[in-house]
Design a protein that fits this description.
With 376 residues, the chain is an alpha/beta fold. Helices cover 44% and strands 15% of the residues. The chain contains 14 helices and 13 strands.
């Protein structure tokens, strides 16, 4: 088979959830099925890091899909023309968008419907684009995949014509995310927090990630405990980050807040594994990969009780209302005051993380590819 893969989110130094999902699936598909050819289509210069097997063929197609007109042209004209000489049997579209003009069967991965759930968290023109084109993409796709039962139910509720068509193939933590020893933890704490313990929040600085309520919760925690505990935010500055930075200027405990910016994978793994606990209080997620990465790293997790987070964490994590800073602070306090509970949560998390496996997800993905090709 010749399998085309949309690679526009495979970007070193800025890759997040969608990109990690695509990279992990692609790497395993290509390695496990060397007889098949994978044409990975990029819209800008790419890193050879993503060309992990000899059967992965990179294809650069311009213009870069950086705004809506160029985006539509890239999907519907330039890439369709560029792929003709390869004659793909299937085209994997991992980011919720697909071509409306191609005759190639397409597998569409829709991670969530955040534009419906949190319309104020994206710009009006992006919101318009999603609202107009998402149902068209879903109708055009030969197969639809999502990452959680929560997202599956959300899509089916919003777009009833998709009912009984959606497959759930979850993500997983990258293998690098593992517990580290005391010396390694000490080195990371010395590097980022002057040797102090810290809570970590992994994710872009974005309203959807609920950073303001985390600051309020941390204030309560610091008020209740005269400790040197820090709060580390790890992620790029995304949409409306200026409000967050302005708040920090007058924040009472600003000396206890650390902003690392975007971190490469090795350093992200280290700073996650050395944390006292992970705080993932997002208002809405289709999956929530940092939850699994923290659990697999031997770090207890406090997360939101909304959307997909309870499905991902099960009974292995602690939950709080993301809109109520007091409930978040109470869970932070409970872990801080009860080391036995913290150890129990670590053990539960390590066991729970075993439920998520990239090899299993890649195998399920390949089964879907075969099913689509067999009927096309």
């Amino acid at each position: 088979m010749v399998i085309a893969v949309n690679g526009i989110f495979l970007q070193d130094k800025s890759m997040e959830g969608y990109g990690h999902y695509t990279a992990a699936i692609l790497q395993r598909l290509a390695a496990s099925h060397p007889a098949h050819q994978f044409i990975v289509v990029f819209d800008r210069p790419y890193s050879n890091h993503f060309i992990s097997s000899t059967n992965i063929i990179p294809l650069l197609v311009k213009p870069a899909a950086r705004h809506i007109p160029a985006f539509l042209y890239w999907y519907n004209v330039s890439t369709v023309l560029a792929l003709r000489k390869f004659k793909p049997d299937v085209w994997i579209q991992p980011y919720g968008f697909c071509s409306l003009t191609t005759t190639i069967p397409q597998i569409l991965v829709v991670h969530d419907l955040a534009f419906h759930a949190l319309p104020a968290a994206i710009s009006w023109h992006h919101r318009w684009f999603y609202k107009i084109f998402t149902p068209r993409f879903l109708q055009k796709a030969s197969s639809i995949i999502t990452v959680s039962l929560f997202s599956k139910n959300s899509i089916e509720t919003r777009y009833p014509f998709t009912k009984n068509q959606i497959k759930v193939i979850p993500g997983a933590a990258r293998s690098l995310f593992q517990p580290i020893d005391w010396e390694q933890k000490s080195a990371i704490k010395n590097e980022f927090t002057n040797g102090n313990e810290y809570f970590i929040c992994v994710g872009a600085i974005h309203p959807r990630k609920n950073m303001m309520n985390l600051l309020k919760a941390f204030s309560l925690f610091k008020k209740w405990n005269k400790s040197n505990m820090k709060l580390v935010f790890t992620g790029r500055m995304a949409w409306q980050f200026s409000d967050f930075l302005a708040k920090l200027k007058t924040y009472k405990y600003r000396e206890d807040i650390v902003l690392t910016g975007y971190l490469e994978e090795v350093k992200l793994q280290q700073i996650t594994s050395a944390a006292y606990a992970s705080l993932y209080m997002s208002i809405y997620e289709g999956f929530g990969l940092p939850i699994v990465e923290a659990m697999q790293s031997g770090v207890p997790v406090i997360t939101s009780n909304l959307s997909s987070m309870p499905e991902v964490g099960g009974e292995a994590v602690l939950y709080a209302d993301p809109q109520n800073p007091k409930t978040i602070a109470e869970q932070m306090q409970m872990l801080y005051k009860d080391e036995k509970l913290r150890q129990i949560q670590i053990e539960k998390g390590l066991e729970r993380a075993k439920n998520y496996n990239w090899d299993h997800s890649a195998e399920a993905f390949f089964n879907e590819i075969e099913a689509i090709v067999s009927v096309s």
